[in-house]
Amino acid sequence: MVYPYTHKEVPMRTNIVLDDELVKEAFRLSKAKTKRELIAMALKEFVESHQRMNLLDLAGKVQLADGYDYKKLREK
After folding, report:
1. DSSP-assigned letter for residue 66
2. Does any domain span residue 13?
3. Which of 10-14, 45-49, 52-56 shows the highest mean pLDDT?
4. Residue 11 forms part of a structural domain
């Protein structure tokens, strides 16, 4: 049988064992009310953090066109 969806298109269920002390600390630091919400928040922050790091990898590698003035563009 061929399924029309990949894991990217539908929610995935999984069972995992979490460190109880780490979960307690994460609840204390967040506004999450459920473990599901806590894990979703953690995954989102993980992805965003790594995407920011990928942008930092570009530092010093991008060459702007001669005469490019980003400050002038911000005045608009």
Report:
1. T
2. no
3. 45-49
4. no
Classify residue 7: in a domain, yes or no.
no
Quote the tokens at residue 24: 């307690």
38 is a domain residue: yes
Q: Which residue range forms the structural domain that includes residue 50?
A: 34-60
Question: Given this model, what pLDDT does residue 76 score?
Answer: 63
Rounded CA separation 35/41 (Å): 10
Does residue 7 contact residue 15 with C-beta atoms inside 8 Å?
no
> Average pLDDT of 29-35?
96
Tell the residue number behind the tokens 């029309």, with chain if given: 4
SS3 51: helix
**Rounded CA separation 10/3 (Å):** 11
CA angle 31, 35, 39 (to 5 degrees): 85
Q: Tokens standing for 69?
A: 């003035």
Number of domains in the chain: 1
